[in-house]
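Extended Data, panel c. Modelled sequence:
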Amino acid sequence: MTTPHITRVQPIRPRGLKVRIHLDGGEPFEITLEALERSRLGVGDDLPPDRQHQLINDDQDIRVRDAAFNLISYSARTRAELKRRLRQKGFRPARIDVCLDRLEEMGFVDDKAVAAAFVRDRLLHRPRGKAALSSELRNKGVAGDLATDTIDQVFETQETSDTDLAREMATKWVARQNAEALEALASDSRSPAKAKARRRLMGYLSRRGFRGEAMGEGMTVAAQIARERGAETS
């Protein structure tokens, strides 16, 4: 059986980063220019089946790496997020894992750094309690222990706490309420209106990840501000 050989290497526009390999037997196939350069093959070289298989395998490694870099260039992503997106692009899980292992060794994939940046951004633009932040990080594929440790470290660096944030969020919530809701919240008596106002505030704080002591502190601060506002208008 005659061994095929390369008869033409055709650049594929617009940038020529991919080429089409033509053989004197069989259908042409496309690979990245980088894979071809690595192989040191050119026009006139033999391309037996085993070498063609290796060339295509190297090409797929390059493609998954480039796809990962492209995803990272748009947004910092955890390993789990990258793996999910790369699988959606049709790459095999085993090939993805090898690629991500290499990128992790090189520092391009770093769940701790991504988690810390995410928490800092949340505190700056959309403050959340630790429970909500932990849930969001787990949804991004960050391991539970790593999520907890990272949140604690960022809170310490930013010199804040769940109770500080709960007070801040409760203060903002009160500022948006009408006089009737504030009067009900400030009242010392039990009433359906007060219970409704407290349920709304508790729901607001709970959805933002505040629990236990932080929740209680937020409720206390909101009632105090409501009473002060009432005193100012009386």
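The radius of gyration is 29 Å. This feature is highlighted in the accompanying rendering.
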